[in-house]
Write a structure and sequence with these properties.
Elements (H helix, E strand, L loop, with lengths): L1 H32 L4 H16 L6 H12 L23 H4 L4 H27 L5 H13 L1 H9 L3 H16 L3 H10 L8 H13 L3 H21 L3 H10 L1 H4 L5 H8 L4 H23 L4 H14 L16 H15 L1 H22 L18 H12 L1 H5 L5 H9 L1
Helix pairs in contact: 1-5, 2-3, 5-6, 5-8, 5-17, 6-7, 8-9, 9-11, 10-16, 14-15, 15-16, 16-19, 17-18
């Protein structure tokens, strides 16, 4: 029996390795047809320059190397800059890929890792929200998580936001399981996208203080200090270099915010409309955050979902490429609706998957797929966050309170 189990385990491992290798080959062929993936190319060049030459990713020389690799020249005004906008410890993720001298093979391996991360993120969100879809709907949701616009676009661009989102969801799973130290470490890893997760992490730390779960806060601060310190052993003043890069960001890159999109559509009142949205969103988040500090797990999960959605509109630099993070709020809506309405809730999930899966591509179809590193049009700042905002307030009562009241259980027993 023991030998049979070992043979089964060995067969599973060999099958997994073969599948992984096959995916790498498929991704290599895809990368050969599409040589862009600008974000990955830039981070790969920066990681190789750091590893083999000891150059800081934030220097003009590295920026010039990145743009030369991306475009064969310096970036023009309407093209993404080659400047690295990630903390130095994010480069540690790319050091294994920097050992691969061919950028196409390096990108193929990275794409395979991101594809696996998208699927794990989808499964983790399902487990986190308690959704129990049937097998056919699980398969449909898996295909949707990769091939909808906000999944495939960051995937093809090689964006680390996919890994950052996975770290965050796994941190919430660890928190629910009572492993607060592990949750804090995973939250620290999510700061490879510091601006994107600024509000969710800030609220999570405040909630941990209010709930007296000090271990998460200590583990987060400790892990973040280790990451920063290890980077300083390599480049002592990297935090200052990174800060200058962030402060100078608006000088060489147009702001990607909902307010900037409004200003482009209606120059007369667009900027004021953007500030109005920022004010309303800030008030909503402050009120809901204050109310959630005294709530348990259900309130935390709903409020974090709302923060993930509205942080795209609050005025911080954002991008529709980051909307892949909204898988968690979407899954929470599906879970609550199916729990409350059974087949009708499942039908809503299927229709929503169809709407987002095909509708967003219909909005995007006029643009060239591989142009400008898959920079998505500003009009996409509205549809998905708006849909999820409405959906989250639709399920708010059921998501925060116990999903089934005692009187409902009694009614079922006597029927």
């Amino acid at each position: 029996m023991v030998r049979l189990n070992l043979l089964t385990l060995a067969a599973i491992i060999l099958l997994a390795v073969a599948l992984f290798a096959g995916l790498i080959w498929v991704n290599y062929r895809a990368a050969s047809f599409n040589s862009r993936g600008d974000l990955f190319v830039g981070l790969w060049v920066a990681a190789r320059s750091l590893m083999f030459d000891g150059n800081s990713p934030y220097t003009p020389g590295v920026t010039a190397q990145i743009e030369q690799k991306m475009y064969g020249r310096s970036a023009q005004d309407d093209e993404p800059s080659g400047r690295v906008m990630y903390p130095l410890y994010a480069s540690f993720l790319f050091l294994p890929y920097a050992l691969i001298g061919d950028v196409l093979w390096a990108r193929a391996v990275w794409l395979t890792v991101l594809e696996a991360a998208l699927l794990i993120d989808m499964l983790a969100a399902i487990r986190l929200t308690g959704w129990r879809p049937p097998s056919w709907l699980l398969l449909l949701n898996a295909l949707f998580s990769i091939f909808w616009l906000h999944g495939l676009a960051p995937l093809l661009d090689g964006s680390p936001v996919i890994l950052a989102g996975l770290f965050f969801v796994l941190a919430l799973l660890s928190l629910r399981a009572g492993r607060d130290e592990l949750a804090g470490i995973l939250c620290a890893l999510a700061t490879i996208q510091p601006v994107t997760f600024l509000l969710p992490l800030l609220f999570l730390l405040l909630w941990s203080f209010a709930q007296r779960r000090w271990a998460l806060v200590v583990a987060f601060l400790g892990a973040l200090a280790v990451l920063i310190t290890v980077g300083m052993f390599i480049i002592p003043d990297w935090p200052l270099q990174y800060l200058r890069q962030i402060l100078n960001f608006p000088l060489y890159t147009p702001q990607q915010t909902l307010g900037a999109a409004f200003a482009a559509w209606a120059p007369g009142i667009g900027r004021q409309a953007g500030w109005g949205v920022t004010l309303i969103v800030s008030i909503i988040l402050c009120l809901e955050g204050w109310l959630a500090l005294g709530r348990g797990w259900n309130g935390l999960l709903w409020t974090l979902s709302l923060i993930l959605v509205l942080s795209q509109w609050i005025g911080l630099p954002a991008s529709p490429l980051n909307f892949v993070l909204l898988t968690l709020p979407l899954t929470l809506i599906f879970a609550v609706l199916e729990d409350r309405f059974r087949l009708a809730g499942r039908a809503v999930a299927v229709m929503t998957i169809g709407l987002l899966g095909f509708g967003l591509w219909a909005v995007y179809w006029r643009t060239t797929l591989f142009a400008n590193g898959l920079q998505l049009p500003a009009g996409l700042f509205i549809p998905v966050p708006l849909l999820l905002f409405v959906g989250l307030y639709w399920i708010r009562w059921w998501a925060i309170r116990p999903r089934r009241l005692f009187v409902e259980i009694l009614r079922e027993r006597f029927e």
